[in-house]
Amino acid sequence: MLLLTKRFQPSAPPPRTALVHLALLGTQVIFGLGSVIGKLGVHKFNPFLFVAIRDGSAGPLLMLLSLATAGLRGSKLHLADLPRFVLAGFCLFVSQSGFIVGVKFASAVVGSAWQPAQPIMATTLALALGWEQASAIKIAGILIGFGGAAFMALYGQKLDASSAPLIGNLLFFCNCMGTVIYVMLTKPLLNSKRYSYITVSAWAYLIGACFSVATVFIVNSKAAWLRFFAPDVAMAQAWVVPHSAILPLIYWILFNSVAAYLLITWGNQYAPASTVLAYCPMQPFVSTALVYILILAGPGKTFHLEEPGLNAIGAIPIVIGMLLVAVSARADEEAARRKNNLQQNFLR
Fold it and tell me: Residue 69's closest CA among 204, 209, 266, 206?
């Protein structure tokens, strides 16, 4: 496999740009399919138990891959990096819980339609932290993108706090923000060359699994909490895994967790954060296509899948905003490259 090596080699030459983009595109296709498959998996199933099993399985699998590729020494976590890993693991937990619990309240297609907002969120954070410079195009992209997200979240929905679609959209927002912060937190770890991308993914998942397991115990301790997050699950079924959830769980463990996060973390070594998240618009297209196929084939109605409504039109300004942000980012990269070249020529 091209992305796995026998031992971690920090001095290895960078891969082809096309391979990096193919990995990032593949990540979003996996996530797009997982959006709908996750909806099938949490039907009459405790969503926090789903997340705990997923993270608790994926973490050890990734660590075994890390030991096999980077060795025991290369898989060691340095104490100085522990706070960053804890934050990355927490963001991973927030991202995954936000989506899996979110699809209990709202449409899986709307959940995937939220994903193009991630590059805009990443740029907004970079501006706030001073990592990037503001420009008219960038600000316009952010405003247009968030306008689309607001329309998608609020159009045709009840605005009271108990509204299931509104709660679902808030959780989707947490899902997107968790992914963005995870990418930004792990980039310095990857750039430090102390860890392989597999090791970074493994430790983040193991720490995220601790949050997932703790949360499912907390939620299952109170009938009111379980009733709120999983109204279709009785207290006696809080720890039960339905047969219908087994295949979705396997998909989410092997593909959405192991494969997708290896791909996105690997790509994060060689691409800016905005580029890592640039293929997010693939998710709503892939999930919408799968929903239509399942509805036409019959299983979609059994699992209460819904065709996207007019609020999904909000994905259009989100994509437009993302493109404007990408254009601005490309201009910034070109300006930085020209400045660097001028400095090098001056030093000569």
Answer: 266
CA atoms within 13 A on the CB side of 202: 21
Predicted confidence band at 231 (pLDDT cuts at 50, 70, 90)?
confident
CA-wise closest residue to 43 among 258, 237, 208: 237
CA–CA dist 108, 153 (Å, integer): 13
Tokens representing 298 are 């019959």
Determine the Cα–Cα distance for residues 178 and 180; give it in Å rounded to an integer.
5
pLDDT tens profile 172-217? 899 999 999 998 899 899 888 899 989 999 999 999 999 999 999 9
> Could you write out the three-class secondary structure of 325-336?
HHHHHHHHHHHH
Asked if residue 325 lies in contact with residue 123, where contact means CB atoms within 8 angstroms, the answer is yes
Question: How many residues appear in the chain?
Answer: 348
Q: pTM of this prediction? A: 0.76
CB neighbours of residue 101 within 10 Å = 25
